[in-house]
Amino acid sequence: MNQDQLKQLVGRAALDYVTPGQIVGVGTGSTVDCFIDALAASGIQVAGAVSSSERSTQRLQKHGIPVLDAAAVTGLTVYIDGADEIDGQGFMVKGGGAALTREKIVADLADKFVCIADASKLVATLGKFPLPVEIIPMAAAQLTRRFAKLGGTATLRAGVVTDNGGHILDVTGLSISDPLAFEAEINQWPGVVTVGVFARHKAQVCLLGGAEGVKTLT
Ligand code: 5RP
Q1: Active-site residue, from 85, 103, 134, 183
Q2: Which ligand 1 atom sits nearest the alpha carbon of residue 95?
Q3: DSSP codes, 23-48
Q4: 151-198 confidence digits (pLDDT tens)
Q5: Which phi and psi (to 5°) does residue 183 adopt?
Q6: Rounded distance from Cα 97 to ligand 1 centre (Å)
Q7: Which ipTM was obtained for this model?
Q8: What is this structure's pTM?
Q9: Is 83 annotated as a binding residue?
């Protein structure tokens, strides 16, 4: 199976976590696109979705799935999203699609984060994938210096403005051995909107697609 087929496989597997009549939290990315398509094809009637990006909102609406404002819900039973990296404990790097801030907001509403990913995303230690950080534009130079002190090289993602009007720094050269402490530290830096380490909002379940099918990591 190629990577696209694995994404479709885990997108379909995530349907097991969707309860008819409930509101589902929906992430962003090519794997989530597969989930949205699978949800539409499944005939499962959800009460609606809370979406983490304009991209996912458009796809949900194209399928006739109502999209609700995050402010209109008090909680979600499940949030389904992809990842750029995930480790064996469910800690993730996210934000390759620049949607990390809204992803963390919607994840925060949910009781359970179900991560859907192909096996290439599983890592022993986070940091190989360039870490996305959404920032306030005027902080870019200072934050670049701060990351350099940690051994990281930050590059402004050219031409990208997030759904919130922020910019994205992609940071290479990091090895994130303590994701909880790292996330807490970076979140304190002035000008950081959201760091793409999801440690406090880690995945409780990971549906990992590989040669032998879908493996469920909990
Ligand atoms: C978007 C994300 C995505 O979940 C992540 O980039 C994975 O994307 P894909 O499913 O396309 O590999 O965090 O901000």
Answers
A1: 103
A2: 14
A3: EEEE--SHHHHHHHHHHHHHT---SE
A4: 999 999 999 999 899 999 999 999 999 999 999 999 999 999 999 999
A5: -60, -45
A6: 5
A7: 0.97
A8: 0.92
A9: yes
